[in-house]
Amino acid sequence: MGLVKAEAERVMIPHEPGSWVEIRGLVYGERREAERAVINDVRQMLAAHAWLYRNCRRYGAPRNRIYVSGHSAGAQLTAMMLAAEWPAYARGLPEDLVKGGLAVSGVFDLEPLLHVSFNSDMRLDARSVRKLSPINYRPRRVVPLYTAVGSDESEEFRRQNRLIAARWEHCFRRDIPMPGCHHLSVIERLGDPGSALFAGALELMNLR
Predict the structure, then answer these.
(1) pLDDT at position 34, please?
(2) Within a domain: residue 119?
């Protein structure tokens, strides 16, 4: 278990006519284990965010503006980071370490994964499903959550999206409609400055 590396990226993107906005981000790399369990992914991301808070100044990024986004299984991790009780996780971490999240095509109720063939790799059981499903948590603080799911995705992904919005109604801000997108294409829109998903990310970070 652990973080392999974090790659810093500095991106200048068009914001409004004649202006640009700078976003600094870290892309995490995971250590892939022969027998990979979902719990290890959560542990890695908790450790990575704690590391980021303590070290982001090395990358010229303010530690009071940490946002998180993920797609599919990464959206589950996004929600788990929003629900984390950071002061209990490690000394010196603030309660509001993560300021908000964008969860794209997420899996927030892991129970259906008990019945798929690749659960032999994830090693989920009834106990771990309860522990690792974001719908079973309610963040103590109001931390903004934006969601998105492609219109061409399966009904299960749309159900998962509705479920987290209902369970986390105190945090849920809005769902970003993504017409004409399937599960793999929807996340590509995050890199398109003209897309609704990109605009939603800026809105989450109070950059528009």
Answers:
(1) 35
(2) yes
